[in-house]
Design brief:
- Helices cover about 50% and strands about 15% of the residues.
- The chain is α/β, with parallel strands linked by helices and about 260 residues long.
- The strands form two sheets. A seven-stranded parallel β-sheet has the order 3-2-1-4-5-6-9, sandwiched between helices.
- Strand 7, helix 6 and strand 8 form a beta-alpha-beta unit.
- Helix 3 runs parallel beside helix 4 (about 100-125).
- The relative contact order is 0.12.
């Protein structure tokens, strides 16, 4: 039976990946910090007839990341598909001096992706088959501080890993969501009232599109025609224009400070 490991698999995009992969016949390994939510999500997936293993891990902790990496490389319990989804929004100014918050973002959304992708790739390459999905963001095409820089790295890293694994039977796909209706923005204290309804996506729509792209071996997955057009514009626009758009979006997303 095929097995998929999903980080951040108890809410939002990660939970939707877990549900859709279960519907496709995968057994699951769910990785998250919150044990109560892990158990609740596992119960929902088991009701679909799937086997679900839970692995409580804080991916900002290097020992915890190593435990997840060891699970990915366990030859007796192979993982066929990895979804690196764990993450959170960041709008800490780069000049804030709040290095602990910046380090947290780096550890969870860069270092953990690097370590877990590498572990999965080695094991999958040796078996001659596997799929790696890294959840990036269209924000990586903009210039909105640490989060944009991190997601730009995720996309570039995924492309580089895909090149390295070409011909091995292992594929890598970076999915670039735009605005998705999950609890992500609320938890990051990001105001979304200025975002047009036409730019919002449902998590089900995003994940379905991504899995179709994975089936086709595509390295970059961009959901919907409208987002493909927006990404095309961003890629070809002058950098000065991209910085201007980035500044406007950043200003509109900040919540006012209460007196």
């Amino acid at each position: 039976m095929a097995v998929a490991l999903v980080t951040g698999g108890t809410s939002g995009i990660g939970a939707e990946f877990a549900r859709q992969l279960a519907q496709r016949g995968y057994d699951l390994v769910l990785v998250a910090r919150d044990e109560a939510r892990l158990d609740a999500t596992a119960g929902e997936l088991r009701a679909l007839g799937r086997s679900v293993e839970v692995l409580s891990a804080d991916l900002s902790d290097r020992d915890a990341v190593d435990r997840v990496a060891a699970r990915l490389e366990d030859p007796d319990r192979p993982v066929d598909l990895l979804v690196n989804n764990a993450g959170f929004g960041m709008h800490v100014p780069l000049t804030s001096g709040r290095q602990d918050e910046l380090d947290l973002g780096f550890d969870v959304m860069v270092r953990a992706v690097l370590v877990l992708s590498g572990a999965a790739a080695r094991a999958m390459r040796d078996r001659g088959y596997g799929r790696i999905i890294n959840v990036s963001s269209t924000a990586g095409l903009l210039a909105m501080g640490a989060y944009s820089a991190i997601k730009a790295w995720v996309t570039s890293f995924s492309e580089g890993l895909a090149v390295e694994l070409k011909g091995t039977g292992v594929t890598v796909t970076a999915v670039l969501p735009g605005w998705v209706r999950t609890e992500f923005h609320e938890r990051a204290a990001i105001t979304t009232s200025s975002i047009p309804n036409s730019l919002w996506l449902d998590a089900e729509q995003l994940v379905s599109a991504c899995l179709r792209d994975v089936d086709k071996g595509r390295v970059i997955s961009i959901p919907t025609v409208r987002y493909k057009m927006l990404v095309g514009l961003l890629r070809h626009a002058p950098k000065s224009a991209v910085r201007g758009v980035s500044g406007a979006i950043s200003s509109s997303r900040k919540k006012p400070v209460e007196a």
